Amino acid sequence: xxxxxxxxxTSLLCLSLLLFPLYITxxxxxxxxxxxLENSDHELTIYFIEGEKPGKTMMIIGGIQGxxxxxxxxxxxxxxxxxxxxxLIVVPRANFYTIKKNQRGINGDMNRKFGPDKAxxxxxxxxxxxxLKDLIGRSDVLLNLHxxxxxxxxxxxxDLRNPMRYGQSIIADADIYTHSDGTVIELESTATRxxxxxxxNIYYTDHHFHFNNHNTLSDESKHKEQRNSATFYALxxxxxxxxxxxxxxxxxxxSTKVRYQTxxxxxxxxxxxxIPEHPSVSLPPPELDHLVVNIIGNSLPLAIxxxxxxxxxxxxxxxxxxxxANYKRGLSIDIDGIGNTNDLGRVTKINSPTTIxxxxxxxxxxxxxxxxxxxxxxxxxNAIKISSPLLLSGLEINVADKNVVVSTGDTLHIIEGDxxxxxxxxxxxxxxxxxxxxxxxxxxxxxxxxxxxxGYYINTATELMNNWSVNKSGKLFRIEALHDRTVxxxxxxxxxxxxxxxLIVERDDGTKIALTPGEVFRCxxxxxxxxxxxxxxxSSKPFINxxxxxxSDTVKELILPTVLEDTIDFELLxxxxxxxxxxxxxxxxx
Length: 590
What we know:
By secondary structure, the chain is mainly beta. Strands 1, 2, 3, 4, 5, 8, 11, 12 and 13 form a nine-stranded mixed beta sheet that branches. The protein has a five-stranded mixed beta sheet with strand order 18-20-21-16-22, with no helix packed on it. A five-stranded mixed beta sheet has the order 33-39-38-35-36, with no helix packed on it.
């Protein structure tokens, strides 16, 4: 069963949460959701996940600081988790406004607003903090997910790795803490067991975690600012173990940081006997599919594909009802120059051209341009138009004397030296003449490079510029389809080296031998043998040419099969157009 609460008056937030029944008798796994300030800049969604069997409750907070995506993306993976035992309270985006801005804090650092002197402040942050405090009080352990600078290490190693860095550490405010009610909370021993579990799954030792005791209560602590943090509140007021999980901001790949966070969360679940279905780390680039938009006065809502242009009369009011993308959470829209940073669900009047920008957290994942068609404010179905963008479905290419169609985003695998010809682009609702096909790294029209390489016979051994290949590797090239100057799709061409698997040699007695380039074949003086054939990875013209060299500058081409008599030493050389593939040496005995 899912619950949805929308509160308009922020002063009611704390009271409403206190009255909400967080737990019910557990007989089967259940997930419940509460959303506060829905579709606002400060939207806060909380997921209550209850296992089939009762157990401890772990609270996971992500995104309390908005420029730490590893934390909120990791927490987001647990919102759909099913539990066999125990409970989770998951807050993936505690500070959605700062996440959208990709900043640590807009109204100050939210993780410095949990101290007693912060309680009377009246702003959105403080209202959210009050909710988080109440949830902490209903939990048995708190995990606060962060990204920290550098790499924490108990001893000074370098400016990037030393005791004042935070990254790749489990932070606590003490090693052992005795609460006012007499409860002894052992933080270091718990974290040490968890860290051992984490590090066994991290191959790169420089990324191993360490325990980082901030010793926050001590007058000698170098981290007294943490006395206003969520973990300090959880430990000293709520009386529960609390840990900061810090991955390093120096790790560039978000998926790696998310993986490390999930390793830590799973290890803590194991420690507290919370039995989950472990989430997988899958982070495809966010991409909008379409928006559901209601034009006020129109008979039915419209489904508008990403990149399409919406045309409306001046003064039309639009209502973006929902976002369909490859993610379910963290989505918002911003109608450029109008409204707030989150205009999802708002009715907005359009008086001038603008753009609906769609975001997944801080990352733009799509947009719908809006243009004005007339000065009339009268809305009808005929007054609304949607211009869908041209999209490439595939390229038809001739290679090895065959026409093949390569779908958008796919890779055509060929051998270096193959000759290909771009036939046409396959695009819906467009004539072929409107689309140019540019093989990046090749120039078809040498007099005037018009960026259209259709129809040319492209020798991939001699006519490509490696500096324009992907990563300048000379192995992967891109063909892009363009409408005007807009890229509407692309495919890739991967080049493999031509190779000889075997040269088949037959002796006079009928024995056949398979030789490979680089080998030395020893035979008796005057022995005759037949060079039968080549076995290679090449199946189309230009084929491999075979040459014989007998120590002079003269190189003669052989037409296989051919009979040779070994009277003096010689080499066979193999070449495809300008590409040398290797040699086999023949040496005489006796």
